[in-house]
């Protein structure tokens, strides 16, 4: 009996894959293989690398605008949302998978289906959230085998716009969109024209920020609706019912958010998904840049307004909480109906196959 083992220049590609938040591994199994990720230490190092640049850019931005405290506030938004998502995703993976439990198999160590034993369910959940909340998309486990709620954690991390911390650069400017909307709401609450970093936020800036925040949800939901409405799209998922819908929704959410990870059950290499996926990537990755650049130009042309007692501060807990609220409300209003048809229904079905 013989076995063919793929080899090649794997090591140098790992730095590009993780530090550059690219995610494409040398081997098909990505970070689940021993050549790409042999130990718990390399698993931790991979997570450190893929988070390093997006997280560090908050400090860079704080120095650029002359307010390190504002950079810390943005980092706090990222860290709090990231921590919550790691928490409930890890908790979900500590439970039995409903589909496995329905077959009469009960595990005392959580959902080990599709996971490497050298990492376990907690590290796999942490890796998955870190990878999907950035634009990395690498994987050390089979995301298709996560519990419904665990898979929802990975999926919704992207649906927030990948702002916690998001991609290298793209995460920061997407977070700034939400920050401007939060400042606008804060200005309404105190009854004065909102300001952000000394620049007045008026109708044009709010419209551009709102447009930028809605580009990705509109693109992802429209292409998902097309995919589930035509036979070529419905032929892609391996599973039927809510899990099959989750496979389609996850794949198109990933492409529209510059991520690249996938629920393994979706057959994406078909003419339909190649064309729809290309459109999804093109619009999801670049259409948002148009209003963002226009917003940057509009703010650059404005004069700096001196700070006063009525200025809404952007370096305190109120700003952090308001920005988190804006991110969750926009994400929830746009994607909750789709999430309800996928992982939530699957969780409530208690392992039933459709």
Q: Would you kindly provide a written description of the structure presented here, covering whatever features stand out?
A:
A hairpin with a 2-residue loop joins strand 1 and strand 2 (199-200). The chain is mainly alpha-helical and 354 residues long. The mean pLDDT is 91. 62% of the residues lie in helices and 1% in strands. It has helices at 10-19, 40-64, 68-93, 98-102, 120-132, 148-159, 170-190, 203-229, 231-234, 241-256, 271-286, 289-300, 317-348; strands at 195-196, 199-200. It is built from 13 helices and two strands, in the order αααααααββαααααα. A two-stranded antiparallel sheet has the order 1-2. The protein has one domain. Helix 10 (241-256) packs antiparallel against helix 13 (317-348). The protein starts with 9 loop residues before the first helix and ends in a 6-residue tail after the last helix.
Q: How would you sum up this structure in a few lines?
A:
62% of the residues lie in helices and 1% in strands.
How are the elements arranged and paired?
Elements: H1 10-19, H2 40-64, H3 68-93, H4 98-102, H5 120-132, H6 148-159, H7 170-190, E1 195-196, E2 199-200, H8 203-229, H9 231-234, H10 241-256, H11 271-286, H12 289-300, H13 317-348
Antiparallel strand pairs: 1-2
Helix pairs in contact: 1-2, 2-3, 2-5, 3-5, 3-6, 3-13, 5-6, 6-10, 6-13, 7-8, 7-13, 8-10, 8-11, 8-12, 8-13, 10-13
Which characteristics define this entry?
single chain; 354 residues; mainly alpha; two-stranded antiparallel sheet; 13 helices; 62% helix; globular
């Amino acid at each position: 009996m013989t076995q063919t083992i793929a080899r090649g220049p794997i090591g140098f590609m790992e730095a590009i894959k993780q530090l550059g938040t690219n995610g494409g591994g040398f081997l098909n199994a990505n970070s689940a293989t021993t050549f790409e990720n042999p130990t718990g230490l390399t698993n931790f190092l991979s997570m450190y690398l893929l988070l390093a640049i997006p997280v560090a850019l908050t400090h860079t931005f704080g120095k650029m605008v002359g307010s390190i405290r504002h950079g810390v506030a943005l980092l706090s938004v990222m860290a709090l949302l990231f921590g919550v998502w790691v928490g409930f995703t890890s908790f979900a993976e500590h439970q039995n998978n409903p589909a496995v439990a329905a077959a009469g198999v009960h595990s005392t160590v959580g959902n080990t289906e599709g996971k490497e034993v050298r990492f376990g369910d907690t590290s796999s959940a942490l890796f998955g959230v870190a990878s999907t909340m950035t634009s990395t998309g690498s994987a050390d486990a089979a995301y298709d085998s996560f519990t419904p709620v665990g898979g929802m954690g990975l999926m919704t991390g992207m649906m927030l716009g990948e702002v916690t911390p998001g991609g290298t650069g793209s995460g920061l400017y997407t977070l700034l969109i939400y920050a401007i909307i939060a400042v606008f709401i804060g200005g309404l609450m105190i009854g004065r024209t909102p300001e952000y970093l000394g620049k007045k936020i008026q109708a044009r800036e709010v419209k551009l920020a709102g447009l930028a925040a809605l580009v990705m949800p509109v693109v992802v939901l429209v292409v998902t609706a097309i995919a589930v409405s035509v036979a070529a799209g419905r032929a892609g998922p391996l599973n039927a019912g809510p899990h099959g819908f989750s496979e389609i929704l996850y794949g198109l959410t990933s492409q529209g958010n510059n991520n690249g990870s996938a629920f393994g059950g979706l057959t994406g290499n078909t003419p339909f998904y190649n064309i729809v996926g290309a459109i999804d990537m093109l619009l999801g990755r670049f259409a948002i840049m148009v209003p963002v650049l226009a917003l940057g130009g509009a703010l650059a042309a404005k004069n700096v307004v001196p700070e006063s007692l009525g200025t809404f501060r952007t370096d305190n807990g109120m700003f952090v909480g308001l920005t988190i609220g804006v991110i969750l409300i926009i994400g929830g209003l746009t994607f909750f109906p789709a999430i309800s048809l996928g992982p939530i229904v699957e969780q409530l079905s208690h392992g039933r196959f459709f």
